[in-house]
TrEMBL record:
PANTHER family xref list: ARAC-FAMILY TRANSCRIPTIONAL REGULATOR, HTH-TYPE TRANSCRIPTIONAL REGULATOR RV1931C
Record domain HTH araC/xylS-type: where: 217-315
Organism, scientific name: Streptomyces beihaiensis
Record's keyword terms, sorted: Transcription, Transcription regulation
UniProt-listed Gene3D superfamilies: 3.40.50.880, Homeodomain-like
Signal peptide: none
Record protein name field: GlxA family transcriptional regulator
Nuclease in keyword set: no
Cited PROSITE patterns: HTH_ARAC_FAMILY_2
Domain of life of the source: Bacteria
Length: 322
């Protein structure tokens, strides 16, 4: 099979990780397939064919000028500070050429560039959480979902900030070449194989503020590492060497979440990862995630995610044990 061409338009003040993260994923497909020439042909291009400077100060040298670039199978539009006041010629090029691509992808605020072309009108999309409101206000015909790390709507896929571009690229590789190839690439990059698109942009640890006081920070870390432990307020308070009442008040003040809500988020996230990436039985996963019974985990999933563990696993195709 001929390699699919992936074209990445570059511009001044592009976010370097929006480019290099997905590029490393696509570039890893050939070696994972056992043929360096298979998988994808990844190309970069700028308006005039000259180098650009990223928002972090790196200089990127393109393969082509956009006018000379071959028609891509996948057009990947990165984000960065340069999307806030883009060159009108870039928007015009995207307006004309993006619809010709078989697959259109954006990372972070690259969605803003696509929105300027009208390609996102009537579509559900996402972008970096910091830009969601701005994108929705500027383009009211675009349905902006601020929560997931990436969204697929037809042949258009949009992702949230920076590293979520890696998650989306891995999902696309898995779609094109299978789970084993994507897993090989993920292992080489030392990242998760695939965070599902509907995973929130904020994990429990990111959604909560990091506590200022060291005992509370240690408790946060301990919860994450021991979801199956005794995570009652009394047990956590003893670990922090505080009274239960003082601990509960201090934890919520410093993290923005009650201890119970934080524990709930950590346990659901732990169970989700196991359902996505292992073949363990539901009862086993319930125990290791701190739920006394599969029914308790089922209630937590229905409350938090609106779906059962079995349906969640089926949706994301994690293999079940025989």
């Amino acid at each position: 099979m001929a390699p699919r061409t992936v074209l990445v338009p570059l511009f001044d003040r592009v976010q370097s990780l929006d480019v290099t993260g997905p590029v490393e994923v696509f570039a890893g497909a050939g070696p994972a397939l056992g043929d360096p020439c298979a998988g994808y042909r990844v190309l970069t291009a700028t308006l005039d064919g000259g180098p650009v400077r990223t928002s972090s100060g790196l200089t990127l040298t393109p393969d082509h000028a956009l006018a000379d670039a071959p028609a891509p199978h996948t057009l990947l539009v990165p984000g960065g500070q340069g999307t806030r006041d883009p060159d009108p010629r870039l928007v015009a090029w995207l307006t004309e050429h993006a619809p010709r691509a078989r697959r259109i992808v954006s990372v972070c605020s690259g969605a803003a560039l696509l929105a300027m072309t009208g390609l996102l009108d009537g579509r559900r999309v996402t972008t970096h959480w910091a830009y969601c409101d701005e994108l929705a206000r500027a383009h009211p015909r675009v349905e902006v979902d601020p929560d997931p790390i990436y969204v697929r709507d037809g042949n258009v896929a949009t992702s949230a900030g920076v590293t979520s571009g890696i998650d989306l690229a891995l999902a696309l590789v898995e779609e094109d070449h299978g789970r084993d190839v994507a897993l090989t690439i993920a292992r080489r990059l030392v990242v998760f194989l695939r965070r599902p698109g509907n995973q929130a942009q904020f994990s429990a640890q990111l959604a909560a503020q990091t506590a200022r006081r060291e005992p509370l920070r240690e408790v946060q870390q301990w919860i994450t590492e021991h979801p199956d432990g005794d995570l009652s307020v009394e047990a956590l308070a003893a670990r922090a060497r505080l009274s239960p009442r003082h601990f509960a008040r201090a934890f919520q003040t410093e993290t923005g979440l009650t201890p119970g809500k934080y524990v709930e988020r950590v346990r659901v996230e732990h169970a989700r990862r196991l359902l996505e990436d292992t073949g363990g039985g539901v009862a086993e996963i319930a125990r290791s995630s701190g739920y006394g019974t599969p029914e308790a985990m089922r209630r937590a999933f229905l409350k938090t995610l609106g779906t059962s563990p079995a349906e969640y696993r089926r949706r994301f195709r994690a293999p079940l044990e025989a």
